[in-house]
């Protein structure tokens, strides 16, 4: 069985020397919702996909191609489960560990609205008021990745979730703290591929264009 060691925030997240070089860990952010389109922070609010989001989710099939996953995990939120279903993915389990960063008092607010109260605010540096800490988000991300690693020798693993949390997953995979996710832009329904080279976790492809996605500010 693969040996997995979770590391500190400023060191390697995982040691995976016995994973195959062809290991594929896919991250799929959900398709567009009304709040993702308007820039409103959405964690526990259980919104459905918009029509554009449904088209994006269906188009994920084109990006994944002939990938046959050994495991598909999803956030329990409706927008993630709809995305998985429309992408043709059979979800084997849902977990709150894949839920979005809990925004607390900033749920439903845009960054501009938050900055009226707190200028220059960013979730990566400041976190949300009355919400989840970066340390808690990191712990969840590390648990998800540890679980995924156990199935990678059997084939590709696909994680279906959310924007900010998926960016933390990417950062943690390569041993960076959650704040490094701020440098990993991720569009709606834009899959990303994490992999392994010489036993070290790598980002193979990130924020792959979704054929049905429309550019939004």
Give the spatial strand order of the biggest sheet. 3-2-4-1-5-6
Element string (H = helix, E = strand): EHHEHEHHHEHEE
Rounded radius of gyration (Å):
16 Å
User: Mean pLDDT, nearest integer?
Assistant: 91
Distance N to C terminus: 45 Å
Biggest sheet overview: 6 strands, mixed
Helix/strand structural class: alpha/beta
Q: And the CATH topology?
A: Rossmann fold
What does this structure look like?
Mean pLDDT is 91; it is low at 1-10. The protein is an alpha/beta fold and 217 residues long. The longest helix is centred in the middle third of the chain and has 18 residues, at 134-151. It has one domain: 3-Layer(aba) Sandwich (Rossmann fold). The chain has 7 helices and 6 strands.
List its salient traits.
disordered N terminus, 7 helices, alpha/beta
What is the topological layout?
Blueprint: E1 25-29, H1 34-38, H2 51-64, E2 71-74, H3 78-86, E3 93-94, H4 111-117, H5 123-126, H6 134-151, E4 157-161, H7 163-173, E5 192-197, E6 200-205
Parallel strand pairs: 1-4, 2-3, 2-4
Antiparallel strand pairs: 1-5, 5-6
Helix pairs in contact: 2-3, 6-7
Summarize the structure.
The chain is an alpha/beta fold. A hairpin with a 2-residue loop joins strand 5 (192-197) and strand 6.
């Amino acid at each position: 069985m693969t040996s997995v060691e979770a590391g500190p925030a400023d060191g390697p997240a995982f040691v995976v020397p016995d994973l195959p070089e062809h290991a594929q860990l896919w991250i799929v952010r959900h398709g567009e919702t009304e709040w993702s389109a308007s820039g409103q922070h959405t964690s526990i609010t259980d919104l459905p996909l918009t029509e554009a989001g449904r088209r994006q989710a269906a188009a994920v099939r084109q990006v994944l191609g002939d990938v046959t996953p050994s495991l598909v995990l999803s956030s329990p939120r409706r927008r993630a489960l709809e995305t998985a279903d429309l992408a043709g993915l059979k979800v084997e389990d849902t977990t709150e560990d894949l839920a979005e960063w809990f925004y607390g008092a900033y749920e439903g607010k845009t960054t501009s609205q938050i900055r009226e109260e707190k200028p220059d605010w960013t979730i990566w540096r400041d976190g949300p008021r009355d919400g989840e800490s970066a340390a808690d988000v990191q712990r969840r991300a590390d648990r998800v990745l540890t679980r995924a690693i156990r199935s990678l020798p059997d084939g590709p693993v696909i994680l279906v979730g959310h924007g900010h949390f998926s960016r933390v997953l990417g950062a943690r995979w390569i041993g960076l703290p959650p704040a490094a996710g701020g440098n990993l832009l991720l569009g709606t329904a834009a899959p990303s591929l994490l992999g392994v080279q010489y036993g070290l976790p790598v980002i193979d492809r990130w924020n792959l264009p979704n054929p049905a996605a429309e550019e939004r500010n």
